[in-house]
Design goal:
Number of domains: 1
Radius of gyration: 21 Å
Strand content: under 5%
CATH topology: Growth Hormone, Chain: A
CATH architecture: Up-down Bundle
Low-confidence stretches: 1-9
CATH class: Mainly Alpha
Shape: globular
Number of strands: 0
Helix content: over 70%
Distance between the termini: 55 Å
Largest sheet: none
Structural class: mainly alpha
CATH superfamily: MFS general substrate transporter like domains
Number of helices: 16
Length: 420
């Protein structure tokens, strides 16, 4: 006789959500450590210039631009649980390899770039697979409440990044090798938690003798879906250009600002990231407790304004505690724009093309980063860190007006599937 209680299926479905969030947390803990450790090695250990730091950060993000769409097309054809587990295990080997080179005295600018490219290339395949898996977990655990699931995942992502940032801030005290070991261990934990999820069969299947479409044709399908949907097109264009203006600047300008203007070290780099990513995490978690935002497009556009305002204040060389406060406020608003944009895309994407559509969205979010990072380093060298912050602020005003007048972004509402 079965011993299963009536509540056991619900408990099992809830445990799936917990294992998924555990995997997200472990994966992004490693990302938090990387966010501090990589620029610290560049700026403080190798003592590179702003221009070379920008080039290195560009290479660290470039694989997402080149491989992200292939990652989405591949994920739609894979059993997601085992596929994601293998990607995370492979990523766990990269920090161990870098630690070995560091111990042997072979750390160099070129080695760091190679390491960043490998880790980012694996991330380009990992992210669409993980995001596609979220939809299935949400359907089984939260009754299909995608907006809540996205906010929970975003909150878990950034709160775990904060813990990783705290650990990364110890680089000056404990050295690089223990932090690389922590990265590797957390990625292995992410793989283990992923394996506790139920199997997730491919969303795209073909008969044994049926010709399988090429990845390029599948990528084209994903791009066509996004381009033909006015809501998706508006959101992804906004996020792409915001990535050029914000992500690259954040990854390059803040480490240089900390070193050259405020005389800080790894702790200050970590703390400014903690303020920013912690703000995103808090904002995302608060959204899970509130009623779903109805006017999602309006919320995204208003949140985007805050980044420009924060950077203008940084230009006036406030005390360091004020810079931390500005980063926190920027993170709180960014949590709104990131959660709501992901929710729009999750809701609009159909199951058979979900990973491909999400990879286009991820390309929109992160694809602008390499362009921004490359340009930011040279802008900082030409104008200085305090004046350089005014360039993306001014450009964002122009972008905001173009998006407002020439797209339907301002009119996008939750659950409509189209602008109202």
């Amino acid at each position: 006789m079965s011993t299963e209680t009536p509540n056991q299926p619900d408990q099992n479905r809830r445990s799936d959500l917990h294992w998924y969030m555990g995997g997200v947390s472990a994966y992004f803990f490693s990302g938090g450590v990387q966010t501090v450790l990589f620029p610290w090695l560049l700026v403080f250990v190798l003592n590179e210039s702003a221009a070379l730091t920008g080039v290195a950060q560009m290479f660290a993000m470039l694989p997402m631009l080149i491989l992200g769409l292939f990652g989405g097309a591949t994920a739609d054809r894979k059993e997601l649980r085992r596929y994601l587990m293998r990607l995370q295990l492979a990523a766990g080997l990269a920090p161990i390899a870098l630690a070995a080179l560091y111990i042997l005295g072979y750390l160099s600018y070129e080695v760091l770039i190679g390491y960043a490219i490998v880790l980012a290339a694996l991330g380009a395949f990992t992210m669409p697979a993980r995001d596609s898996l979220l939809n299935r977990v949400a359907n089984s655990s939260l009754g299909g409440n995608i907006q809540q699931a996205v906010s929970m995942a975003t909150g878990a992502q950034f709160m775990s990044q904060v813990v990783g940032l705290l650990v990364g801030g110890l680089a000056t005290v404990v050295g690089a090798v223990p932090l690389m070991a922590a990265q590797s261990a957390s990625l292995i934990v992410a793989a283990i938690t992923t394996m506790r999820l139920p199997k997730a069969p491919p969303s795209v299947t073909h008969a044994p003798h049926e010709d399988r479409p090429s990845q390029l044709s599948q990528i084209r399908e994903g791009i066509d879906i996004v381009w033909q949907n006015e809501d998706l097109r508006s959101v992804i264009l906004m996020m792409f250009f915001a990535g050029i203006l914000y992500i690259g600047v954040f990854m390059v300008l803040f480490p240089i600002l900390i070193r050259d203007i405020y005389g800080g070290d790894s702790f200050e780099i970590a703390f400014i990231n903690i303020c920013f990513f912690g703000g995103i995490g808090v904002s995302s978690m608060v959204q899970t407790r509130l009623r779903p935002i109805k006017r999602q497009g309006r919320a995204i556009m208003l949140a985007m304004c805050s980044g420009s305002i924060m950077m203008v204040f940084v230009h006036f060389h406030p005390p360091l505690w004020a810079v931390f406060t500005l980063a926190l406020c920027w993170g709180l608003s960014s949590g709104v724009s990131m959660s709501q944009s992901r929710a729009i895309v999750q809701i609009a994407a159909v199951d058979s093309h979900r990973a491909r559509v999400l990879s286009v969205f991820q390309l929109g979010m992160m694809g602008g980063g390499p362009i921004g990072a490359f340009g930011a380093g040279f802008v900082i060298e030409a104008l200085g860190p305090l004046n350089a912050v005014l360039v993306p602020s001014s450009c964002m005003v122009v972008l905001w007006l173009l998006i407002f007048f020439f797209t339907n972004m301002w009119k996008i509402e939750a659950g409509t599937g189209q602008a109202n």
